[in-house]
Amino acid sequence: MGVKKILWTFCLFAVLLVGYWYFEQLDAEDQSLQAVSESLIDNLSVSDVYKVHLIAPGKSFAVYRDGYGIGADGETISTPSPEAPWLLHDPEGAPTIPSSVDTFLQHLSAVMLKNSVKAELVSSNQSVYGLKPPERVLKIKTANKEIVLSFGKKHEISGRRYVQKESDPRILLIDEEDFEQINIGKDDIRSRQPLQFDVSKVTTVTILRRESTVPFSLRKVSDSPSRWTLDAAGIKVDADTELIESELKKLSEVEVDRFLLPTIAPLHYFGLDDPLLVLRVALADEGGEEKEILLQFAEAGEITVRLPKQASESTVGLYFFRVSFQTWIYQLTHPSFRGWIQEPTHFRNTLPFSSLREENVSQVVLRSETQVLTFSTDEKSKEWRLGVADGQEAGGLETGKIRPGKINRESFRSWFNELTKTKVLSYPSLKPADKARAKFDSPVFSVSIEQFENEPALSLIVGGPLKAANAQDGDSADPLAPRYGLLRGADKRQVAVVLSASVIEDLRRTPEYFSNSTKTQR
C-alpha cells in the first residue's frame, strides 16, 4: 500500500471518529431537551405594538409610535395610529429608518420555538443559560399587554439560542438564524436624516447669519402657496420660490455622519457656542397651529476626540449642527447648509417682471446708446403708440421711419412676453471695483415701465460686463458677456443684478422689429 493511500485512509478514519463523537454528544444533549413547536410570541400584530424597548450592551434603544403617551402610573393615555411613524427616545423624537421597526417586528412574530429544557433538568443556576443576567432583554408594549423576552447564550451543541418569556418558567431555544434577524441595535434603525419634515408645511424661514445682527425672513403667501416673499430690513418683495423650496428639500433630507454627545467636548470645539447660521423653520400642523424647528450650524477647525467604542482617538469632521433644546450634536460630511448663508437679495425672485400685466402698463421706454423707443397707451383705448427718437433725445419723435399708431401688436406682445420671463442670474453685492466696472452712469441699454393707478414704476439698466466673462476694461459693448444690471423693482429700491447676454439681446430691439410681423429684426 502506498504512502498516499495510507494517509487518505487515516484522514477518513479521523473524520468518521469525530462525527461519531459529535452525534454521541448531541444525542446526550438531546436527552435534556424536548421538542417544541409553537410561536415565540402568539398572535403578535405589528399594528398593535406601540412601543419597543431593547436593553443590550452597546445596542440599547427604545422606540414608540408618534402620538403614543403614558401617564405617571404607566398607563397609556394616548393611542397612536397604527400607521404612525416610529420615533426614538434617544435622541428624543429622532426619526427611524422607514419600515425598519415594522420589519423587525415582522421577523419577531415569525420566530418559532424549537426546544425547551426538560423541567426536571432545569438548573437553578440560570447563569449557565446566560439568563441571569440576560444578554439582552426585549420589551414589547401593545394596547393591552406587555411582552418581556430575555435572551441568553448559545446552546453548546445545537448552536440554538436560549430564551425565556416572562411568567413562563421554561427555558426555551430558538434557531440562531432567527435570533440574528432580530439582533438589531440603535444604529440599525436610527435614521441618518434627523430633520425629516414636510416641505409643503413650511410657512416661514427666519435666517440669522453670524456676520449680521439683523435676521431676515422668507414667508409663504397664505393665499398663494406657490409664492414666497422676502422680508428684509422692512422691505417686502417677491422671493425665488424654486430656490427656497430646493434649499428646504435639501435641509429636510440632510444626512449626518455621526451623533455626538456634547459631553465629549465643549460646545466651542464644534463652533456651536457662536454658530455661523441660525435657522428658525416654522411649519403648520394639521390643526392649523405652528411648530418650530430651531437649528444652529457651524464650521469648526479639526478637533480630535475619543469617540465611544473606539480605542484610539479620532479626528471629527468640520461641519456640525444641532437642534435647539435637543441633546445631540450632528456631524455632517458636507456643508449642505451653505445655501442659506447668503445676502437677503440672494433669495429675491429671479423673474422680477413675472407679475407684470400688459393691461396695467401705461408706458414702456427702451433706451439704447443710439435710439429711444417710447410705447404709450391710455386706460380707455388700450391702443399702443410708438415714438422713436435718435440718441438720448427722449422728447423728439422721428416720424419719418415709423408713424405713430403703426405698431405690430404681435411683435409687441412677443417682446412683452420676453420681458416677463427675464431671468436674473444673481443678485451680487458689488465691491467698489465692481461698481466702477458696472458703468451704470453710461449704460448700454435700459427699460423703464410706468403703470396705471398706484402700481410702482419698474426699470432695468444694463451696464458693463463681468470680469468672470473674460471681458477687458473698455469693451462694454461686448454682446456675449454677462452684464451687471441695476433693477428697480416693486419695492421701489434699486439693486444690482447679473444678466446673461441672451436675456439682454431678447430685450434690445430696433423700431423695425415692432413694425415687422416676422420679428427677425433686432
Descriptive account of the structure:
There is one protein chain. Helices cover 19% and strands 33% of the residues. With 522 residues, the chain is α+β, with helices and mostly antiparallel strands. The protein contains ten helices and 30 strands. The N and C termini lie far apart (105 Å). The strands form five sheets. A ten-stranded antiparallel beta sheet has the order 1-8-12-11-10-9-2-3-6-7. The longest helix is centred in the N-terminal third of the chain and has 28 residues, at 3-30. Strand 6 and strand 7 (92-95) form a beta hairpin.
Task: Give a quick rundown of the structure.
The protein has 522 residues and is an alpha+beta fold. The protein has helices at 3-30, 100-110, 176-182, 186-189, 241-252, 267-270, 409-420, 432-438, 501-507, 511-515, and strands at 33-39, 49-55, 61-65, 69-70, 76-78, 86-89, 92-95, 112-117, 136-142, 146-154, 161-165, 172-174, 202-209, 216-221, 224-232, 235-238, 256-260, 277-284, 290-299, 303-305, 314-316, 319-323, 329-332, 361-368, 371-376, 385-390, 445-451, 458-465, 483-488, 494-499.
